Structure prediction request, 199 residues.
Amino acid sequence: MATRTRIVLLMHPKEHRHQKCTTGRLTCLNLANSEIIPGVRFDDNARVRALVDDPGNLAVLLYPGKDALRLGSGGFPGPALAGRRLVVFLIDATWHGARSIARQSPSLLRLPRLMIEPRAPSRFTIKRQPAPWCLSTIEATHELLLALEAAGLDTYPDKERLLAAFDAMQDFQLRQTARAAVRTTHHVRGPREPLDPPV
Prediction:
């Protein structure tokens, strides 16, 4: 699926080490105009600097804060783009990891910031979120694209795709966990072997 907005995931190394089944990777697999940049310190990252310094881009950070523009309430007017491409950086990490990235990459916090107001709590069933407004990366991207479309800043042609992929990922992980539990139970409580070999 392609969008005009460039989605850039700044992925904490702990997330990046998980080669499979992270919502950040799943996001990029489903969005053509997206990429992952791993790390913790991004102030001197060449790729981040290239995206921020490109005059054809308007780079923003999706991260809460008192000065963040609330997309849901029309806080980001279309004329602000002035023909530029919108590049949205998302920090892909646990909340602790996200704060660490923000602390060690102060230039990110100097970018214009966006906030989204989720329409519903996270659908994460295999991981508990620290607060009702906290979302996984793939859910945050979905909500971001909905808000950008509502603001007339982008089109979001396949609104079910990201959440369907997220649900499928969780179903797969739950099935794998159930299979592992069955194997462990069978190994521990399997049929008893005779103490002595048959005569």
